[in-house]
Write a structure and sequence with these properties.
This protein has one domain. Helices cover about 55% and strands about 5% of the residues. It has eight helices and four strands, in the order αααβββαααααβ. The chain has a four-stranded mixed beta sheet with strand order 1-3-2-4. Strand 2 and strand 3 form a beta hairpin. The structure holds zinc ion. Zinc ion (ZN) binds next to helix 4.
């Protein structure tokens, strides 16, 4: 089960403030991509990059993301194998937001749709594929809107647990590991086309 998507509206707020800032500073027009084939070519270039291959490819899932025109949709959307971009959404910021959903589905399948894992990857892609200045600006907006982009800090206090609790923990971890292996096997045998709709996330 995925974690609850509880910072979604904060992520939207940060992104909208960032885009408004880009427009004010006349840095936005250069990020527009009007035609779906152009966006597809850009996405393909990202998928073939060393950065993407190092972090977001695995033996289970095909390294493909189809860009759809988002016709009939008000919202943009992104899942493991496709992103949908209605006309208003055709810029590099929203395209990377949606592509980040694909990256999260591949690397952190249990994470919240817009959790800290999402934000870290989004920033990483913005830095590489848009620029350092834009990365810094978006990160500053995330801070302003109290968006988390790193894991919660662990407590340094050592935990005292009894040998019985330790044994129970060990059994639990072993059961979880067996379950993961089974899930991986199942995912590998499933038809990607069928998984596509279930992994699609609303913008
Ligand atoms: Zn989203």
């Amino acid at each position: 089960m995925r974690a609850r998507d509880n910072q979604r509206s904060k992520v939207y707020a940060a992104e909208q403030a960032f885009i408004a800032q880009l427009k004010t500073l006349k840095r936005y027009d250069g990020l527009r991509m009007e035609r779906v084939p152009d966006i597809q070519a850009w996405v393909d270039k990202i998928l073939e990059s060393h950065q993407w291959k190092t972090h977001f490819t695995n033996v289970i899932y095909a390294n493909k993301v189809e860009v759809k025109d988002g016709r009939g949709r008000r919202r943009a959307g992104g899942g493991m194998w496709e992103i949908s971009l209605p006309k208003w959404a055709r810029d590099k910021v929203v395209a990377l937001h949606e592509l980040t959903h694909s990256a999260v589905a591949r690397k952190h399948p249990r994470a919240a749709a817009h959790g800290h894992e999402f934000c870290k990857i989004f920033l990483m892609l913005v830095k590489r594929w848009i620029g350092q200045w834009e990365h810094d600006a978006l990160k500053a907006w995330m801070r302003t809107k109290r968006v988390k982009f790193s894991p919660p800090r662990q407590s340094n206090r050592p935990r005292r647990i009894s040998p019985a609790q330790q044994a129970a923990l060990k059994r639990g971890r072993a059961a979880l590991a067996r379950k993961r292996v089974l899930q991986k096997r199942m995912a590998a045998s499933e038809d990607p086309g069928r998984l596509e709709s279930s992994s699609s996330t609303e913008y």
